[in-house]
Amino acid sequence: MNRSALSLGTSPPPAARDALALLKPIPWFPPMWAFAVGVVSSGAAIDGRWLLVGLGVLLAGPMVCGTSQAVNDWFDRHVDAINEPDRPIPSGRVAGRWGLYIAIIGT
């Protein structure tokens, strides 16, 4: 633990694998697909904007679905402590405040 984390009274950031577990990447596909379908169904020309469309598809999963998962886990942390104690926040792999910070940053 570094000195600044101790002086602020906060816990260190979670490991990347634990933060990713909080964002639950498995259900990211539907919002990514929805973004792509929305682009196609809009009828707008995407000539020369493939990078932007690709970036939108790639970010739709973590930013839309992943952030909502983090928000849900933060608000349900007390219930999950009883029903799902292996989840990142109740298990202590992600400190509650870090779960909130991840949700806010994603939002």
Furnish the topology, listing elements before pairings.
Elements: H1 3-8, H2 16-23, H3 29-42, H4 50-75, H5 77-83, H6 88-91, H7 96-106
Question: Could you describe the 3D structure shown?
Answer:
With 107 residues, the protein is mainly alpha-helical. It has one domain. It has helices at 3-8, 16-23, 29-42, 50-75, 77-83, 88-91, 96-106. Helix 4 runs antiparallel to helix 7 (96-106). It is elongated, with a radius of gyration of 17 Å.
Question: Count of helical segments?
Answer: 7
The average pLDDT score comes to 88
- Whole-number radius of gyration? 17 Å
Give the overall silhouette: elongated
Secondary-structure content class: mainly alpha
Strand content: under 5%
Helix content: over 70%
As for the number of domains, it is: 1
Number of strands: 0
Instruction: Please report the distance between the alpha carbons of the first and last residues.
Output: 27 Å
Low-confidence stretches at least 5 residues in length (pLDDT < 50)? 1-9
What is the string of helix and strand elements? HHHHHHH
